[in-house]
Amino acid sequence: MSGSLLLGAASAAAALVGWLSVSGIRALRRRAAIRRRMSRLSGLLAADQTAEGPANAPAPALDEGQARRDHWLVASLNARYPLVGGVRAAIISAAAGVLCFFAMAAALQFFGLAASLAYVASALVGGALAWNVGTVLEDARRSLFSTRFLVILDDMQRMVRYGISGHQALASAAAAAEEPVKASLNSILLAADFGVSVGEAMDREARRTRVTELLMLAAVFSTQASAGGNLSESIDNLSNSLRARLDNRTQMKAATAESRITMIILAMVPFAGVGLQALMQPELLDELLGAGRHLFGIGIGFIVGGLLVSWMMIRSAQR
């Protein structure tokens, strides 16, 4: 009975944390969008005043005010997760860690582990999960960026080939782009509208987001602006290079697909066996969840540990 109450309390706490996380993400996303626009405008205005105004221009005041508004923790999170968003990644990571803590603490106590040891083990596992969730989200966002950025390059190459300028082609591609590429292109266009060259604005955005594809395109625009050349041909060569790299990544995923399927099947076999046993001989399942729950918990722990090791090996191979 105590185990059921503990599981119910953990489920209620998980639902509450999930609802609070979703509400917090929505509110912080709106605030972050407004702050990004204001920081870009103030930074560009400060740069213009420093370049054109006298030596005592009020640009340092803007920089100091922005530094005071941006808390060091938020700034570090945004630098660590530029594509996902630092605050959003922190909220998701914290929610995942809390959910893991409650669920694992309830499960470990159900399987017979002492409460103190269950809380310590759950805190360690929840903290490790919270630390790595943001990295997993950022890697997935970067993979999505690479895939959708290739479509943008193809569109720009066709428009430039038919006589449209690079800036106009970039603006047209940004209007039809999808996230997360759209946000980066809009930031580049905003800087370009304030007089910054497209190549320099793209280089700044590439260094902020640490996206190599964007840095390569910035080099193409900068080279074309300084030395001239065929922009359409340069974009086409870059597109072919990025497509070859994306094909290699796809081949690596296909090569590890068998390992992933095998891992999933092997993980499902024990639980399928327990389900069949519950249908055919439910009294044995009662015995397993009663006197044998310690052995059942050890078995689940070995399965989860094996899945974790396999996932880490497959992930390292894909990288």
Describe the model.
With 319 residues, the chain is mostly helical. It contains 13 helices and no strands. The radius of gyration is 26 Å and the shape is elongated.
Average pLDDT metric? 77
The percent range for strand residues is under 5%
Largest sheet properties? none
Proportion of helical residues: over 70%
Helix/strand-derived category reads: mainly alpha
Question: What are the secondary-structure elements, in order, as H or E?
Answer: HHHHHHHHHHHHH
Shape: elongated
What radius of gyration results from the CA coordinates?
A: 26 Å
Total of helices = 13
* Uncertain stretches of 5 or more adjacent residues: 44-69
Structure summary:
The chain is mostly helical. It is built from 13 helices and no strands. It is elongated and about 80 Å long.
How would the blueprint of this fold be written?
Layout: H1 2-52, H2 59-69, H3 72-80, H4 86-110, H5 115-161, H6 166-176, H7 181-193, H8 198-209, H9 212-227, H10 231-255, H11 257-280, H12 282-289, H13 293-318
